[in-house]
Specification:
This protein is α+β, with helices and mostly antiparallel strands. The protein contains twelve helices and 14 strands. The strands form four sheets. A six-stranded antiparallel sheet has the order 5-2-6-13-8-9, with no helix packed on it. A four-stranded antiparallel sheet has the order 1-14-7-12. The protein has a two-stranded antiparallel ribbon with strand order 3-4. Strand 8 and strand 9 form a beta hairpin. The longest helix is centred in the middle third of the chain and has 40 residues. 34% of the residues are buried.
Length: 598
């Protein structure tokens, strides 16, 4: 058996391949930071007050805030007609995307998805302030149109009852006119963006019997903030997925054929490498292009599931990969050997899967649903996320311990090389440094994964404190339905760079493992001495400078370096005698390992 390619590949071939792959990963960071727009853009739409209207005792269905037939607008809470209207006769209208320079703008399928939150503007009044956890029941209608010149709005959802809770903190100055600091309220999430313009109408009819919309204070207005993925980011990300899929697929087939051609069963790490490759193919499967022509509401859930599956396999792979380099006397090689370490990964993955199914899975049918809407749902969601985070922390602490042990054990084995011949020392040290590189690349990849996850969470919640930074549609991908990729070469966008860079690093890591840990079909060439002979133990036997003591130590060092158990054998060191077959197997055991330095 000739070991893996990482052991046997010549340095002249190894270095260019490593440089190429690392450059590919670095390019993903640079493209993300310099060329790609921010992943998400927002617009803040101020709600227009409209009077509820009836025609022939039939209520008007839609209340657009602009167009040829806008609603009967009110001038906010100070309008003179407010005193003659009931609360249920007021409709808050939001129409987006917002116009620019008196010109209507259009949405695009390149935006992939969008979701919206609302902010209640409650002014402080001495005798009219919101109660604690006031109950809200929003009557929400969502319409759309694909022809900006048309005044006909079509229905997505009509008169949907949405239950929420209003949580506000008093202003720092308790005087009339100062606003309460109210939490944003999740309104809806749509997993696709198939239409050009959207209209949202909200009513707040009070119900004294249930307490809905009763104790909410003095409402001065409602703001709606919608979020969508930018068209430029979508384009770059989909191209990146397609390229990585095309690169990993042939490598997976090639790796599978090399493993299948062996005259032995595949070892556990080889099986796990193929599993990692398949999960990467699933992650990169470019079905996202279909969303440009057909509506696929499930894409958000599908993206979460396939990324969760890939990360689960990747986390398991890191544990197994590092453990297989421990170089101790523990016998591994099967899944049951890692049940303690991998149980945290499986537990956290199961929690996140259930949470995602409950949150985004239900939203496919009901986009207004959220676990965070009720006190019980909030507790359940926090418990799920808390347990998942705790499991992730324990996992990474466990991984750190395994990596440290692996590095320490390899370092101890290096001290035994001094008993070997000089050529063998160089030969085996070269292999050691190659495995160091693979192990450190795994560590760097895990650190980047954690950093990207943390930055992603911060970015997703940035609207909680950056709502004033409105981004126009022209700047993020659409002008009159055409795509205008806004390229900012001055500022380096750290969040986008991390998101695309780490995604690229994941794929480069998979390719590295598929290439360098594939079984090798050739035996590594041993060093050659001045006479042109290979510096194995047979050369030392014929060397005049090699005495019995030196040779015994060299053989013992190699035998100790290998973790395979072998029966001791008495070797006759008389001149010209050949080393026994069993002793030769021990000497070459390092280069005959299929996937690690056991």
């Amino acid at each position: 058996m000739a070991g893996v390619i990482l052991e046997n590949l010549s340095t002249k071939k190894l270095v260019p391949i490593c440089i190429l792959l690392m450059a590919f990963s670095l390019t993903c960071f640079i493209i993300g930071g310099k060329l790609v727009p921010d992943p998400v853009h927002t617009q803040n739409a101020i709600g227009n007050w409209c009077k509820r209207q009836f025609v022939n005792n039939t209520e008007v269905k839609w209340y657009p805030s602009r167009g040829k037939q806008p609603c009967d607008r009110l001038d906010g809470p100070d309008d003179k007609r407010i005193s003659t209207l009931r609360a249920e006769d007021i409709v808050f209208s939001f129409q987006y995307p917002l116009p620019r320079d008196n010109e209507e703008k259009l949405m695009s399928r390149w935006f992939m998805y969008h979701f919206a939150i609302v902010n209640f503007n409650i002014e402080y009044k001495q005798n009219n302030n919101p109660g604690e956890n006031a109950k809200l029941k929003l009557i929400v209608s969502v319409g759309y149109k694909d022809d900006p010149k048309s005044d006909q709005w079509l229905t997505l959802h009509h008169e949907r009852e949405v239950d929420r809770t209003l949580q506000c903190a008093p202003p720092s100055t308790l005087k009339d006119g100062y606003r309460w600091e109210c939490d944003f309220i999740d309104l809806f999430e749509f997993g696709s963006m198939p239409h050009k313009q959207y209209l949202v109408n909200i009513r707040l009819p009070p119900n004294p019997q249930t307490g809905d919309n009763i104790n909410i204070g003095y409402l001065s207005g409602i703001d709606l903030v919608w979020f969508a993925q930018t068209g430029g980011f979508t384009l770059y990300f989909m191209v990146m997925k397609t390229v990585f899929f095309a690169m990993i697929l042939p490598l997976t087939i090639w790796n599978y054929k090399r493993v299948s051609d062996l005259n032995r069963p595949a070892v556990f790490l080889e099986k796990l490498s193929l599993t990692l490759a398949i999960s990467a193919l699933l992650l990169n499967l470019p079905i996202d292009w279909l969303t440009l022509v057909i509506e696929m509401k499930f894409m958000l859930l599908w993206s979460d599931i396939r990324q969760g599956l890939f990360l689960t396999v990747l986390l398991c792979y890191w544990v197994v990969f590092a453990s297989e380099h421990m170089m101790d006397d523990v016998k591994r090689g099967q899944l049951s050997s890692y049940y303690k370490q991998l149980s945290f990964v499986m537990f956290a993955s199961a929690l996140m899967f259930v949470f995602d199914i409950c949150e985004r899975g239900i939203r496919i049918m009901n986009p207004f649903f959220t676990l965070w809407a009720s006190a019980t749902g909030t507790k359940v969601a926090k418990a799920f996320l808390g347990l998942a985070v705790a499991s992730a922390i324990i996992y990474f602490l466990t991984l750190a311990v395994i990596v440290i042990k692996a590095i320490y054990n390899i370092w101890k084995k290096k001290s035994q090389f001094k008993f070997m011949a000089k050529g063998l020392q160089v030969h085996y040290m070269s292999i050691i440094y190659r495995f160091y590189f693979a192990l450190m690349f795994s560590v760097v990849c895990s650190i980047l994964t954690v950093a990207a996850f943390a930055m992603g969470q911060i970015y997703e919640s940035r609207w909680r404190w950056e709502l004033d930074d409105e981004v126009d549609v022209d700047e993020v991908g659409v002008v009159d339905g055409q795509h205008a990729w806004d390229v900012n070469l001055k500022d380096f966008k750290v969040t986008t760079a991390f998101q695309l860079g780490v995604y690229g690093t994941w794929n480069v890591y998979v390719m590295v493992m598929l290439i360098f840990y594939a079984p090798s079909h050739k035996q590594a060439a041993l060093p050659v001495d001045a006479d042109g002979n290979e510096e194995d133990e047979r050369v030392e036997l014929t060397s005049l400078s090699s005495g019995p003591t030196t040779r015994s130590r060299s053989a013992a060092a190699v035998s100790t370096f290998s973790t395979e158990d072998a029966t001791d054998e008495t070797v006759n060191l008389t001149s010209g005698q050949q080393v026994s077959d069993q002793h030769q197997a021990q000497i070459h055991s390092l280069s005959s390992r299929p996937s690690h330095l056991d």
